[in-house]
Amino acid sequence: MKSMKTSKITTGILVGILIVFLVVIVGFPLAWMALSSLKPGVELFTIPPKIMPQNWSLEWYIQAFSNPNVIRYFLNSLLIASVVMVVDMLLGTLTAYSLTRFRYKGRKLILICVLAAYCVPPIMLMLPLYKIVNAFGMPESHIGVIIAHLTVTLPFSVWLLVSFFKKLPKEINEAAVMDGANEMQVFLKVELPLCVSGVLSTGIMAFIMSWNEFLLSSVLISKESMKTLTVGLANYISSTHIDWGIIMALGTITTIPVIILFALVQKYFVEGMTAGAVKG
Amino acid sequence: MTSGTMLKRPRLITSYERRHKLIGLAFAIPVMVFLLAFVLYPVLYNVYLSFTNASLIKKTSSFVGFDNYVKIFSNKLFLKYFWNTIRWTFFSVLGQLVLGLGIALLIARPMKGGTALRSFLLIPYVVPAVTLALVSKWIMNSDYGIVSYWLQQAGLLEARQSLLAMQGPAMWVVVILNVWRSYPFPMLIYWAALKSIDKQIYEAATVDGAGKWKTFLHITLPQLKNTTIVLAVLRIIWTATYYDLIFMVTGGGPSGSTTHLPILIYQASFGSYQIGYAAAISMILGVLMFGCIIFYVAKSGLTED
Amino acid sequence: MKRSMTKMMAILLTLLMTLSVVACAAPAAQESAAPAEEATAPETAATQAPAEATPVDYSGQKLVIWTNLTADAQYEVLSKQFAEVAKELGVEVEVEKVAFNEMYGKLAAAASSGDVPDIMHTNFGGTAYLYAADSIMPLDDVINAIGADDFSSAYKSVLTGKDGKIYGLPDWAMHTSVWYRKDLYEANGLSVPTTWAELLSNAETLNSTDLSGFAVPLDGVQVSAQTLYAMMTSAGVYFTDPATGEYCFDKEKEDAIKVIDYLVELYHKASPAGSLTWSWGDYRNALAVTGTVAMTLDMGAVIGNAQGNNPDMVDKLGCFDFPGIDGKAKASFGSGYCFVASKQDDGVRTALVADFLKALYTPERAAERALSRPMFAFPSYKPAYEIYKASDKVADFQEQVDFIFNSFENGTWYWYGMEAGLSAMSAYIESTNIFGVALQGACDGTYTSEEAYNMINDDLLSFAGAM
């Protein structure tokens, strides 16, 4: 009895240590970034490096926000990621619904095409997409980047949603059809409410992927006013003069919104991701 | 009357079924059109390019047959970069699956603040790669990077050296960074899979006197087999074609030690302007990824009803 | 539970739909404006106004200008000047930043789709690329109109094409020298080195636990090539023959290997191990901010780093030219920024671009642009030099400024690959990563100097062959 109790306590302590370790590993880079962005210029390069700022300073944030482009980058990222998210949810759901609830010839072929599209390396699309976007005069708008992000996110979203829909019982659907509802009604009134969390979590994934995307955005965007946060931020390292202070401030500005957004919708994300998606 | 409906019924069903099929197809059409225009067309264009000597600095190009492919395999460094791709992908995926499963087992235990912990551990998933890259470049700086400083103090690293400037360690650093950012996805999926394992199996095992380790080995792991296969395929494809992180942390260096195929393709296109050659390399990467998908389709039964 | 979820989704959807409508509306508005502009162009084109007649009606015209200068201070001055000139001429301008490290990707993509900006403010490599891609036009008329003698002849010859015409309008110039800690030299009783051996021994004398004598930065793209080239020029080794313009790096194998040997030796004996992947920001910080390096090659921007993060260091920095093997250097590594202009379809726009560029060349404007660089970019437009020297920013550095200006005006200096005028080889040297692969490998023992040389030479040759 006693030994079981001690072993339970030892496990408890072990688990506790593990958790602390994990929290430190996960939190350290982010904490370092946030704390550094609050250090004045002279403290950024102290040797040995110190974790906590000796004098707190907001100078880098003032500098960052006094650059009107930073706000533009932010809005651009928000806009592009939001549109990508909505399109992914709409088209992805329709396609997944079609592939799992209807029986027609070529259905499997479509699914295989979607999966094949998922394995096309984005770097392979880089130049052709650039040509298409320019041919249609789209560098003037965000549409080119949105299309580029969709080529990456859409196949993945369909894949997620197909495996999600497959887990839902078909019987309700059939019952509704018996009651005389048409396909759109069944979809909107019967299926959609059942899979809100799945659709939402797919949308969130798409949002995050788009918000973080760098390669295609950096090639497709040449206009300062069109740049996304990741592209704008990457420009700061490449410039010949590295300003770590402002980079850390911008990094914090880029990261915090996604963390907050994610925290807000996480419940649905966890629910959706665990409700059967990606289990084959 | 009765005979009339009897006669009509079959016709009604077929027309209903045809309409039903058409509507189903219609739902899938937008995505198909999109993929044809913006994925298939670029891929075909890429296939075409791979057989030409197209260059970004010349306006004309001509058909060169398999020259680009021959050139790839006669390049001594290609093997090194190919091997880098395999190491990067294998260890990144292995790392995130093992870590994901480990943490899933940890947070599957009932405990106080479990939800908060889980939420916290999901954060790396949304941290932009560019942010992570910038922070790591700084903390790994040979002079004023805090991680380098700790390692130097501990005698694990030469004075004023950085892991990112050493050929062997640089690859490990980018792999670790990638694992840091990607473990939450497997973690969540494993966590869900663990929850769905029937409790009764465990109870039966405990009655049989099986220890924790044995239960894990003989009951938990086999139950997670399918999840693992799907996750592995998903992540292999994503990782092998993933460009952003390596590009921003090491740019493929030092001396090409972290150059994997996507970086090589970028270099070939924008570094040496040879887009025909770059297209041929991306064909090889694409074909390998397609192989993974075929394997997945055969294994997963996703196309079954 | 389910209700709140549906509600939440509805709210999210509405929000996003609104956003997307806004997103699509904004570009749509721009698109509708575009055809109107195009419609006016052919009409005015028909009049074919000569370039000299200044009061041409440029109204409704718009110029797209790219610049590599992403640092805020520089970008602000440029965009301010562009806006002023645009107002004078009654046209619209749109200025885009194209960061240095993504420049070749952007240029390549732009050149291949024919979407080159009207004017670009770029370095020699960018100029060479656009010249090779046949995207820019000669600017001899503009230069003559401003005053051909107001620009240094070495500068003009770098920007001269195979047809003898000048394709870039010189803006400001820079010169690579060794930046060093005067205080440490004094404390150790050292004097300015005049040979490679002296430089190495000075560097070794300065080495201590916290200090490295000479930083050899070798970041993968551009930086490694620049470090090598600064040493190559001092030994008289070039990529193309200054006299003929032919590729000559293959003929100088022995000397080139000697240079690589020296670079590797300097790295091992006097440079921090981590400098293998150092980029500009890293070595500048090491010399001017953390003070962990006593010497490094630079074009002078170190001063800006000191002013920003460690003002005490400003007075301690000086510069001298990288010595030759046994005495005076054969040549040095110079650089600069210039304006280039893409070919225009009609006479009015050609005239507009010319007038726009001319208006940028008042002594005040030229000096202001040079001064916006963190440090030691001096105006290549000679009438601006006095204003430049008199400014507060340079006042404390008369000695260094005169030294550099002298080296630039009277010495022999080259930009890699363009030893005899514009050549695509230069752009290639800037964008390839072979210098990083070979030189980093030579320094960490993966390759011998000869192997590194062969890798670089083979790569450059294969480019030359493909041209």
Describe this structure in words.
The complex is a heterotrimer of chains A (280), B (305) and C (467). Chain A is mainly α. Chain A has helices at 2-36, 59-66, 68-101, 107-118, 122-135, 143-167, 171-178, 183-194, 196-212, 215-220, 229-238, 244-274. Chain A folds into two domains: 2-36; 61-274, MetI-like (MetI-like fold, Orthogonal Bundle), CATH 1.10.3720.10. Chain A is flat and about 75 Å long. Chain B has one domain (67-300): Orthogonal Bundle (MetI-like fold), CATH 1.10.3720. Chain B contains 14 helices and no strands. Chain B has helices at 2-49, 67-74, 76-107, 114-122, 129-139, 146-153, 167-182, 184-196, 199-207, 212-223, 225-240, 244-249, 261-271, 275-300. Chain C has two domains: 57-174 and 336-390, D-Maltodextrin-Binding Protein, domain 2 (3-Layer(aba) Sandwich); 175-334 and 409-466, Periplasmic binding protein-like II (D-Maltodextrin-Binding Protein, domain 2). Helices cover 52% and strands 11% of the residues of chain C. Chain C has helices at 2-47, 72-89, 103-113, 124-132, 140-146, 153-158, 182-187, 196-206, 223-234, 253-270, 280-288, 302-309, 347-359, 363-372, 385-390, 392-395, 398-410, 424-431, 434-443, 449-466, and strands at 62-67, 92-97, 119-123, 169-175, 177-181, 295-298, 317-320, 332-341, 378-379, 413-414. In chain C, strands 1, 2, 3, 4, 8, 9 and 10 form a seven-stranded mixed beta sheet that branches. A three-stranded antiparallel beta sheet of chain C has the order 6-5-7. In chain C, β1, α2 (72-89) and β2 form a beta-alpha-beta unit. The model of chain C is unreliable at 16-53 (pLDDT under 50).
